[in-house]
Amino acid sequence: MSEKRLSMVDTGQFEDAAIIQDDDKLLVMRAIIASEIVQQYQDSRTGKPFFAYKSADELEKATWTADGRWVKVLTHPKSSSLDSVEDVNGKMMNPVFRKDLNDPKTNRPCRRGIQVDVAWFKDRTPKEVIDRARRMEIKDNSIGFTCFNDPTPGEFQGQHYDVVQRNIFIDHLAAPIEKGRCPSPYCGINVDSAEDLEKPVITVQDADLGISYVFDKAKFTDEQAKVWVEKRTVKDCPVCTRMLEAGLLTAGQRLYKQYGADVLEVIEGHGLPPKDASPQPPATTDTQDSKDDVILKNRQALKDLYSLTEIFT
């Protein structure tokens, strides 16, 4: 077993949540914050990917560490632990280790994981975030935790793993956030409701990432779901992966703060011809004016978006 305790984050998606409490002080919703699963991580020293197994036994031992831990909305704190009063928007309550979570593959109550009640303080959380959480427009949650990696390889439900995460200690929860790693119905708020179990879904697995994506059959065909996952797979682009983990809105904010609206020229490829490409003839005045107009409009759109997201910073 590694002697170094590692700081990690996991994310999960929630949907169709029932509200436990909604009054002047609190909005409380139930969540599955961790589930027995194999997930991909990246070695902070070498940058190489590896797969880690979060076992039911280790999750059961870690359940009590979630009690009373703080919740931050929209993103994780800048440091690996939540240690600033400014970052506190709520807390986790009533953690329970459950052995009867529904398995979407078999539709049987045999999966295991940690359930908590997520309570957001309304006097410390932007009203827009509360409203979006209530309406289920932001559907993800993400635990920040530390653990020891036991370098014992194995398999769980046909998925290979390189290490076992042991002595898990839950530090905080980021909820709600834009992007989740452990998708519903595996993790999330009220994922075992009768409504969810009856809803016809399509499950597409990504064995390389160690995750599955779940689609509503009323909105996706099998082929559309497969294409969506293929387009979302960015294993060959570590920057893309990190942007998805941070959330596209958060990543956009950070890019704008660092580089200003000119970052759009990089994103759109302006002035960045392909490598080894032969010189192209100058564009006509009309074409160039059109491109400049698009750039200006996009810059203004990004500025408008930034002003709308000020409350999230």
N-to-C span: 39 Å
String of helices and strands: EEEEEHEEEHEEEEHEEHHHHH
Note the main sheet: 10 strands, mixed
The total number of structural domains is: 2
- In total, how many beta strands? 14
Question: What gyration radius follows from the Cα positions, in whole Å?
Answer: 21 Å
Poorly predicted runs are 193-198
Strands, helices and their partners?
Elements: E1 5-13, E2 19-22, E3 26-35, E4 37-42, E5 49-54, H1 56-62, E6 70-72, E7 90-103, E8 108-121, H2 127-134, E9 140-150, E10 154-156, E11 159-161, E12 163-177, H3 194-198, E13 201-206, E14 211-216, H4 222-232, H5 238-246, H6 248-259, H7 263-267, H8 285-308
Parallel strand pairs: 5-12, 6-12
Antiparallel strand pairs: 1-9, 2-3, 3-8, 4-5, 6-7, 7-8, 9-12, 10-11, 13-14
